[in-house]
Amino acid sequence: MSRRALITGITGQDGSYLAEHLLSLGYQVWGLIRGQANPRKSRISRLVSDLCFVNGDLLDQGSLVAAVDKVQPDEVYNLAAISFVPMSWEQAELTTDVNGMGVLRTLEAIRLVCGLDKSRNGSSGQIRFYQASSSEMFGQVVESPQHEMTNFHPRSPYGVAKTYGHFITRNYRESFDMYGVSGILFNHESPRRGAEFVTRKISLAVAQIKLGLQDKLYLGNLDAVRDWGFAGDYVRAMHLMLQQDEPTDYVVGTGRTHSVHDAVRMAFECVGLNWRDHVVIDPGLVRPAEVETLCADPSRAKAELGWEPSVTFEQLMHMMVESDLQNVSRERELGDLILASSW
Ligand code: NDP
Ligand code: GDR
């Protein structure tokens, strides 16, 4: 019988890539869907006939118990979150509830369902749990590059809530002998990235500017430095983490850094334009507490999982600009332009 995976956050960037990856490995893939007519279900429309769906919300404990009980998964990937950092200052309580308490609720749902089902006794009957932890937990860095033992100093309500999710996953592993791991993933992007995040905001604006639909791109801190990779590579690491004999946490990133400034320059170069003619700094887009620089040390993931990234940052920006040129051209023909982010 094929293995069964339950993915929360399946309509997000990572959920869509992970679903594709697990389907390609022969898994039966279930996605947790919330709301009545989820608008983002279109992101996985090409997969809909291959997927199964179950209703649930990370804010609702009962719905999670019912979902886990119905699906009886071998593996649960908790990718659901409010994932845009600036939003977490505007809706701090909601962010804490979804990104922090939501992890606890998912762990409790697994514990309850496993506890009720006597056939799940022993490690072979365990439901394995993956938590989407984040490099934002490092925040104001005390050492570089950052590895699994680096101390956390989160700089946003998002980072603080993710840190709770990280530690409660570790605590359930230690307290109840659950198979739970956290992937501390650094920024990863793709043509499916939400339009608020800086790489996609840039690639979309470059396409609109190239096609004469926009002239200026407003950005915040161009000096911020990140370790950016390709989302398709990172979901492979998530799956590998759950296949290890012993559960432990892993840092996943490329070990290479670029600034927002580099991203802007590369994206405009892709279409033969000079970024200086179009980019405007908007102080309103600078964050209340910025994470200035992050760089991964993925040595453990490379050594123990055999994981390697396959896409360079240059290739990633190129891929995103090409994709948005096609998207914007198509939308222009349909008279239905993709809305630029106001963030
Ligand atoms: P997205 O923002 O693209 O997707 C977030 C998903 O969470 C959506 O499917 C959304 O569903 C779902 N969601 C939000 N609130 C709830 C809720 N209350 N109940 C159930 N589902 C909910 O994020 P990514 O795919 O980029 O990221 C996946 C995870 O990885 C997130 O947890 C993020 O914080 C974390 N992460 C991401 C990194 C990155 O660089 N991408 C790096 C490190 C960590 P809906 O369609 O209903 O809104
Ligand atoms: P981040 O990603 O906050 O690192 O979180 P984002 O792309 O939003 O910001 C990266 C850096 O770019 C700077 N920046 C801008 N960012 C945005 N969005 N818009 C701008 O106009 C702009 N100008 C400069 C930011 O200040 C920041 O320094 C992402 C999310 O996916 C999280 O969920 C995840 O946990 C982390 O990556 C790892």
Automatic annotation (TrEMBL):
EC category: lyase
| An MF annotation (GO) of this entry | NADP+ binding
Q: Output the SUPFAM superfamilies linked to this UniProt entry.
A: NAD(P)-binding Rossmann-fold domains
Give a yes or no for keyword NADP in this entry.
Answer: yes
Question: Among the record's GO biological process terms, what is one?
Answer: 'de novo' GDP-L-fucose biosynthetic process
Please give the Pfam families that the UniProt record associates with this protein: GDP_Man_Dehyd (PF16363)
- The catalytic activity of this protein is classed by the Enzyme Commission as 4.2.1.47
Q: Which domain of life is it from?
A: Bacteria
Where are the catalytic residues? 163
For activity, the cofactor(s) needed are: NADP(+)
Q: What reaction does this catalyse?
A: GDP-alpha-D-mannose = GDP-4-dehydro-alpha-D-rhamnose + H2O
Ranges for domain NAD(P)-binding:
6-320
**Which UniProt keywords are given for this protein, alphabetically ordered?**
Lyase, NADP
The record's function comment reads:
Catalyzes the conversion of GDP-D-mannose to GDP-4-dehydro-6-deoxy-D-mannose.
Q: Which PANTHER family match?
A: GDP-MANNOSE 4,6 DEHYDRATASE (PTHR43715:SF1), GDP-MANNOSE 4,6-DEHYDRATASE (PTHR43715)
- Family affiliation: Belongs to the NAD(P)-dependent epimerase/dehydratase family. GDP-mannose 4,6-dehydratase subfamily.
* Name this polypeptide is given: GDP-mannose 4,6-dehydratase
Task: State the gene name recorded for this protein.
Answer: gmd
